[in-house]
Amino acid sequence: MKTVFALVGMLAIGVCFAQPPVQVVPVDPAPKPNLVRNSSFEEVQNNLPAGWSWDVRNTQATVAIVSEPGAVGARCLKFTSTTPFAPEQYALLRYEGGVPVKPNTVYTLSCRYKTRSSFVGFIGGGQNWRVRLLLENTNDQWKTAALTFATRENETQFDLVIVIEAPTDALWIDAVKLEENPDATPYVPAEAISQPLMAFAPLPSRLYLAERSWQAEVEIFAPQPLPNAELSAQLGRQRVRQRVNLPAGASKAVIRLPEPRESQTTLRVSLHAGDQPLAIEHPLTVFTRRQAESRLKSLQSRLPRWQQQLEQIRRKGQDVAYPQASLTILQEFVGYVADDLRKGQIERAFAQLDEMDAMAARLENTLRECLQGARMLPTVPRYITSRVAIQNASLIADTEDPLTRQRQRRPVFFVGFGHFGQVRRDIEKFPLMGFNLIQIERGVWDFLPEPNKISRQALEEDILPAFERAARANVKIDFLISPHYMPEWVYQVYPHLKQPREGFIKYSLFAPESLTVLREYLSVLLPALRRQPALLSLCLSNEPVNRESPESPLHQQAWRRWLQNRHKTLITLNSRWQTQYQSWDEIPIPTGGIPYTEWLEFNADALADWHRQLAGIVAEFLPHIPKHAKLMSWTFLNDRELYQGVDPERFAAFCELNGNDAFNSYIHDQNAPWAFEWIRNWMAYDFQRSLKDAPIINSENHIIPDRERRRVPPAHARAVLWEGAIRGMSATTFWVWERTDDPQSDFAGSLLHRPAIVEALSHTALDLNRLAPYVAALQNQPFEVHILHARTDLAVQGPEQIIPRDNLYIALTMLGVRVGFVTERQLLTGRVPETVKRILIPNVQYLSDEAVFALDQLRQRRGVILIGVGEPLLTFDPYGRRRSTRPPIQTLERNIEQDPVLLARKLEPQLQTWGVARPLRLLKPDVDQPAWGVAYRTAPYENGYLANLCNYTHQPLTVRLVDPQGNPIKATNLLNGSTVDGSITLQPLEPVLLKW
Asked: What does the alpha-carbon distance between residue 39 and residue 284 come to, in Å, rounded to a whole number?
């Protein structure tokens, strides 16, 4: 199919190829016919593509036909929009008349597009627009996307639309194709054309080269054969040219090129066949291994000088904690980048070098200013291996002043990483970076490899050496006992334990034998840890859930026993459930309705009770070591996750620490209302703190999604750590201190590939321990307003409770109010804290009579104010029986979907009426209205106040600071010593700690 006639110009570029520089190969798979006419928008009518109609509707969107490098043919479409996303707010381009299709037939829709926006809209359609190929961020690179679907029984026309429903400064679309096929095949036009079409196969604009040569691919569609055509490629001053025979239809040209000499260049490909040449071009920024090696060598050569300067500053009597951390991180990443270059990980090497160069410039400036006497570095008390005490949300331990060597017991923030081999190897390095905590794990199979056989190998060769090294290095360890690592022989001895389950634990929690095995394992492990001063805490389990098959006999038996204990008689159960069961054995595991809401409580009881027994075993051996479980925080307050059985209130009864596994990812969409996913993260922390006044330990702190390739700003990492600490997180290990070359690994994209993220965490950890007494004061202030949490109502209503609850939480957070929670279980057991003064009821409808009575008693006896969002409230008991009376409730807002901004305007004047003290108010710069987008908390301190502020949006925000009388506040920013006089401009995700 290919014939090579000539090779021109290769000697001029100094590279000799073993194969011809241009090869034409058939396309595989062969393209199927395209059903969409004018699909590359070459035919124009009235400034729109012929055969398509544009409806701007209720938006400020635009569409234009443009020439854009990378397009198929001469033109493509460009969309823009400034209209925010909202229901029923969109513009659309419609294919006139629809596309004829066959009923009950499989089709694939595909297109080429590129955008910088996180989400723009979709291309698709069909009946009720059920087919939607979402248009999301491609990092400004052309991307081919496809979606396969089946038409419905009566569907003969496919309503093809491109819908723009979110802001974007540019979305380009080209090469739309609808084909009768289960997969996307290469693009071809539907109509006969007179001229060839040519486009680059997906080619990035940033080209990373590990070798001295590379290849580009060009897709060509020729309406008729093109014999003896000339195909040439020019890259800067380099050029290759070759004669080829192009067949009719679709083919692909593979062009081999040498490494470009220029960093900024353009690849131009031309096809000469007949009188009308065809040319395409693609701008490139080129990154080569040699460039990276040069940059790395330059940085590496400066490390010894910086180390010498650091020692000079230390000898002058300054604490070098911050520059030492930065230098240590640079030293570590120099090795990582060198390893990446050896492996050909060029793009990752450049990403790290970009961050390292910026870090190096800051470090150089800091060292120079210190040596010149222009800067004094702050002193950070360091944790010294010692006993740790719990004091409300704070952890108290021994610290040492690095300059005076004086020791003091004070609040300490334990910050570090998990969870595998690399944290063990780096124990001694962590204190140099400002970190003092790791989480490691071992499990049952390490100690009980066979029946009646105990192995101490893991203990003696791994666990105890790690603890001894950590104690010498002043590093604490949170040890995960990993009950899910159960050896296979256990299932042979106890076959009934093996039930179909989801989650880490693969054996049934409804049988006692698992705890028998765990006791044997722990009887070997835990006594060995009794005298290990590095032990901070024990983590009972990893991401526990209770998702056992409804067909499991153990599950069914436990469920029926629970029902008998709850209802006592079948008559009572049938009356409540409106059923007619004649025997307990008839009752299945339910999937809906009132029985399901009760099963949710049973399941939560079962998971907690199993852990309660496990905690009891641990306490027998280590009675004074705090315990927690790594509860997934997104399951706490989400109706769709209740079936997992995770209830932190039940765990709080036997755990000394509030343990969790939480995520808070950066939001890349610059038009999004928030810069990171703070709402459920902070709400989960406040929820746990409401249930137990104890520290939060987030032992798997996810701040970067697995396999994330995009850059994440260091300010995100800083904000997650600092703001979490303000809300009671006194210990955390971040996921994950590991590197990988496997793009599909959970470690891909982790923070150990991101030096600037590690530096941000290290400096923030140092800040927390430098300013620990102030942060502890903010941690331990009581909640000022509480939201009612009712699990049954959450299960029944779902979003109708969640929406007003979340909006209340957001609005109050933006007003500087601490938001806690009161649960139905607290009401039923009389354990509502004395600090509860105001309870907000977010459209709760289903609540037990006993809980409603307790609410009324709080109102009458303690003067607790009950405030509602939604009307009416508390209408039913958990069994759906309508209630005739309820306590008096103030109605704040009837609309349960009220926007949090408008809700804040309603709440703000009510706070004074409710007696909420607000020593600080944040106002907009020009009007006396509450500022929006800045989360803040205050606390009395000595003879004045503290305030923590953080801008949660993508844009800088200027706010005014006023006291209750409206007077400007003059304060000191404790983080950097600057003075704030009445107003401040807050950068995105940059915390500020004020004292006045």
From this structure: 27
Tokens of 510: 């409804």
The torsion angle over the Cα atoms of residues 403, 406, 411 and 417, rounded to 10 degrees, is 50
650 forms beta bridges with none
Q: Mind listing the pLDDT tens digit for each residue in 476-487? A: 999 999 999 999
Q: Does the pLDDT of residue 626 top 80, yes or no?
A: yes
Cβ contacts of residue 993 below 8 Å, gap of 6+? 771, 774, 775, 946, 947, 948, 973, 974, 975
- H or E element at residue 390: strand 389-391
- Residues linked to residue 502 through DSSP beta bridges, in sequence order: 547
Coil, helix or strand at residue 79: strand
Cα angle at 156 between 151 and 160, to 5 degrees? 75
The mean predicted confidence, pLDDT, of the chain is 95
CA Rg value for the chain: 32
**Distance, CA of 859 to CA of 875 (rounded, Å):** 18
* pLDDT tens, position by position, 120-135: 899 999 999 999 999 9
CA distance 710 to 733: 22
Q: Are strands 819-823 and 785-789 parallel, antiparallel or unpaired?
A: parallel
Average pLDDT of the segment spanning 905-913: 96
**Looking at domain 918-996, which of 2.60.40.1180, 3.60.40.10, 2.40.50.180, 2.60.120.650 is its CATH number?**
2.60.40.1180
- Phi and psi angles of residue 425, each rounded to the nearest 5 degrees, phi first: -65, -30
| pLDDT of 635 higher than 50 | yes
Torsion of CA 739, 743, 748, 753, to 10 degrees: 60
CA angle 558, 443, 733 (to 5 degrees): 100
- Of 16-25, 66-75, 176-185, 738-747, the one with minimum mean pLDDT is 16-25
Q: Nearest 5 degrees, angle CA 687-CA 567-CA 792? A: 30
pLDDT in tens, 153-198: 999 999 999 999 999 999 999 999 999 999 999 999 999 888 888 8
Task: Tell me the CATH number for domain 44-179.
Answer: 2.60.120.260
Query: To 5 degrees, how large is the angle CA 956–CA 960–CA 961?
Result: 120
**Type of residue found at 811:** A
Residue pair 295/353 in contact (Cβ under 8 Å)? The answer is: yes
- Give the H or E element holding residue 517: helix 513-529
- Distance CA(488)–CA(15), nearest Å, equals 59
pLDDT at position 254: 94
Q: What is the pTM of this model?
A: 0.92
Domain 7-29+195-276, classified CATH 2.60.40, yes or no: yes
Is residue 23 helix, strand or coil? Answer: strand
- Say what the pLDDT of residue 863 is: 98
Strands 394-400 and 407-411 come out as antiparallel
Looking at residue 19, its pLDDT comes to: 64
For residue 512, give the amino acid letter: P
Structural contact between residues 200 and 280, judged by C-beta atoms closer than 8 angstroms: yes
Q: Is the pLDDT of residue 285 over 50?
A: yes
CB 417 within 8 A of CB 736: yes
Q: Residues 862-899: pLDDT tens digits?
A: 999 999 999 999 999 999 999 999 999 999 999 999 99
DSSP at 153: T
Across the beta sheet with 62-66, the strand order is: 62-66, 76-81, 168-179, 106-115, 143-150
Q: How many CB atoms lie within 10 A of CB 619?
A: 16
Q: Are 203 and 269 in contact (CB under 8 A)?
A: no
pLDDT of residue 496: 98
Q: Which residue has the tokens 């410039």?
A: 361
**What residues have CB less than 8 Å from 377, skipping those under 6 apart?**
313, 318, 319, 320, 321, 322, 323, 366, 370
CATH superfamily membership of 412-552+608-669+695-766: Glycosidases (3.20.20.80)
- What's residue 30's pLDDT? 86
